[in-house]
Amino acid sequence: MKVNYQERIEATTTELKIIMAQRRELYLARQKVQALYLLKSGSSQSITDVAELLGVDRITVQKWLKQYNDGGLSSLLKLRRSTGRTRVIPYEVIAGITTKIREKSCEFKSYKEMAGWVEDNYQVSVKYQTLHKQLHGFAFKPS
Question: H-type helices in 9-110, by residue range?
Fold first, then answer.
């Protein structure tokens, strides 16, 4: 069954072009508007065509269209914050480690020594594996 998406998109192609130009810095937002534009302008006839043109999955385009249908452009373009876990090692600790490593007097011989230093200076208990994972190849290579 083919659905005519041109009729379901209220914004005009001109409005969508303007929004795309304004949203260049936000790639995902631009892709979302571009999906609407492709359907509204008739450049693409199906969600599958749009998905292929944008390099995303068909389900992703369907989710975007559901967002648009539920709340309009403002809902579609709303930036959502990640609700992921907080960092185990705070940014200020990473910055402190980086500063310490760059000092000529730095004498860390292992990640375990570094973990001890972090606990002494920042009162943050960090496992060796976590520290290694966060810093491996970043700023520290023990001898």
Answer: 13-22, 27-41, 47-54, 58-77, 91-102
Alpha carbon 58 to chain centroid distance? 19
123 in the Ramachandran plot: left (φ > 0), alpha (ψ -120 to 50) or beta? Answer: left
Q: CA 114 to CA 29: how far, in whole Å?
A: 41
Q: Which residues, in sequence order, are CB contacts of 30 under 8 Å at separation 6+?
A: 20, 23, 24
Note the pLDDT tens digit of each residue in 71-114: 888 888 887 766 677 777 777 887 888 788 778 777 778 888 88
How far is Cα 122 from Cα 96, in angstroms, rounded to an integer?
9
Half-sphere exposure of 131 (CA within 13 A, CB side): 21
Q: 128-135 and 111-122 helices cross at what angle (nearest 10)?
A: 100
